[in-house]
Structures are given as C-alpha cells and as structure tokens.
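Exam revision sheet. Question 4 asks you to relate a sequence to its structure. Input first:
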Amino acid sequence: MSEARFVRARQLFPGAEQGIYMDVSVRGLLSTDTKGAVDRYLEERIAGAENKRAAFDTVERARHRLASLIGASADEIAITKNTSEGLNIVAAGLTWKPGDNLVFCPEIEHPNNVYPWLNLKRRLGVEVRAVPTVDGRLPVEGMLAAMDGRTRLVTLPTVSFSPGFITDIAPVARACEDRGAFLLLDAAQSVGVLHTDVRTLGAHGLAAATQKGLLAFYGMGFLYVRREAIDRVSPAYLARFGVDLGRDAHETAMNASELVLAAGARRFDLGNYNYLGAVAIDASLGLLLDLGSKHIDTHVRQLANRLATGLRALDLPVCGGAPGLHLGHIVAVGTSGGGRHDSADDPAMNRLYEFLRSKGVRFSIRRGVLRFSLHLYNNDDDVDRVIQLAREWVQRG
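Answer key, structure tokens:
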C-alpha cells in the first residue's frame, strides 16, 4: 500500500492537525466521514423520520464488518455496550464448579478485567490465581505453571493496559487447548490498530469497545465467541434478540412455550441497540477495512519504532528497552507500576508530561509511565516533533 493512502486518510481527521494526538489508548479521533454519518442519522431523528428497519440493517452490517476485521464469522459476534460487558458475559456464563480456578495477571490488566474475577471469588468461591509480572511483561512461564486440570478460564490482554506491551499469547493458547480452559482476551487496546486474527490467536472469546482503535463512540462494543465454544457460555440474562423465532419474526414476537437461543453469539444481544453507536462504528469500519488492518499495523509499528528509538537516544527510560516483539503502537516512558491515573512517582516524568502537554501533545500517564499511543492518522512529522520537544526538555535539564 502506498503511504499516500495514509496521507489521504489523515485528512479525514481534523483533530490530527490541531495538535499532536497520541492518545488512542484513551480514545481515538473521529473522522469527518463518521461525523457525516452521525449527522445524517441525527437529522432523521430530529425530523421523526428514523427507519427502524434501516437501523437494524446498520447493526447487522457493523456486525459483519467487525467479524471481517478480526477474522471471525458474523454469528460469532455479539453486540455489547463496552469491553467490560463482554468480559462479564463470559464470567457469568461459564459453568463454574467447586474447585475450579482461573488464571490472570492483574498488574498488566485494566481494572475491568480484574473485578469480574474477584467477584466470582466472592460469589462462587472460584479460586483466583494471580500471577505477578516480570518487568512489566506477561510472565508466560508463570501463567503456564499456574494452570492445572481445574483451570476453567485464562484471561489476558492482547496489549497490556500499561505499559502497553504486546502479549505473547500463543503458548498460553496452546496450554488452554490442552487443558480445556477457556481463553478470553481483552482486546480493548488493540482491535482497529493492530492486525487481529482470532483464529491465529487461538482465542475462545475476545471483547473490545469502539471508542479506541475502532475510532467511534463510547457505549458500544462487541464480544467474539468461537463457534465451537459457544455452548460453554450460557446467557446469564436473556432478551428478545437473543432468541430465535425465525428470520422474519417481528422484534416483539414471542413464543412462551418454547425457548430456542439465537445461533452463535447473537444469543448475548440484549434489547434495542445503540443505533447511534452502530452508525458511527459502521462508518469507521468502512475506512479501517479499506486501509486494511495489516497495513495499519505496519504503519503504526514503524512509527512506534521511530519514536522509541528517538526517545532512547535521549537516554529517556523507554519501557521494554530497544524496539522488539513487545512493541506495537504504544511507547511508554518511565518506571512501570508507580504513580496514579494521571501522575507518576518520578517527578521528572511529571515535568516532562507537563512540558509536552503545554506544547500541544496529547497523551496520557498510566501506572507511572508516559503512554504515547499511535493510530493510522499519525505520521513521521508527529513522531519527529515529539522527539524534538523531548530533546529541548532534556537539554534544559
């Protein structure tokens, strides 16, 4: 793909020209194409002219596009309101038995992929096996050692919440297959930015939301459940769209004498959808699929490599050291594990953060590190400007 494609794509994101935006790990920018689709929908609502059938069609088109983006089938995709709901659907839907355990690494997880499991411990007595990190990385050997014949579930982030390293999933996936454990991935920080193929990953389930790499709104997400694993997850709550009454049945149709769950992951759909969110993600997915996830992946990794290399040349403490397999679209600087939501324990990192923000760089601090996260609308000029500003700060002492 020609780099010109990304030059043209950047022009769809006015926010990319209003400063240097490196904060997709919090939320992605919105394109003018997506805004246009949303405006048209709102005009219909204002006029009282919304077409419910067309709204359903938009949801289904978005479902198919989400499936295409991650290498799944449409019937393996449930529409949710966020990543957390997807994770909780699996937590509540698996059949837990006395003596069962689950394995995870909470230090690299977002809190919303921690609390569902602590809740299972509280409610059902499930043994929660927390494995500590090794230098901010997922401890693969430790995860494997923690698994046994009673491990019902293993959950991992595809990219850690902080410091944003890519997770080595393959050995854990193989171990899950060998032991019959359900592998659930939190893909909030990767889908839409890094190439994602659920078959290659070996996941049984994967959850994400649309406001980050998918470049849409809060309030919508999806859950992938592998077709072969669907019967392992029973809906803990059920509504009309999770029931199969035939293809042409109206949304208010009901059969009180027989309950047939919808095929695949659609059984987890609830109530009316976030139609505004569906319009936004449908438009955004059009761009993402047109550019191609492999090409976007290559683009952001090259930028991240350039940024990490430039910051290391200034002797700044880039997490993970030299660029390697751990590096995707997120470059973190500082000491991982210290600090709070928007501050670091290291005063120097707080000063660098304030300096860059004052110069129009949008990024974040998470768990003690400065987190620069890139997407398709970023370019070499963005990266070089951040390196230049960091050099000015270093030279000022």
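Marking note for examiners. The two ends are 42 Å apart (CA to CA).
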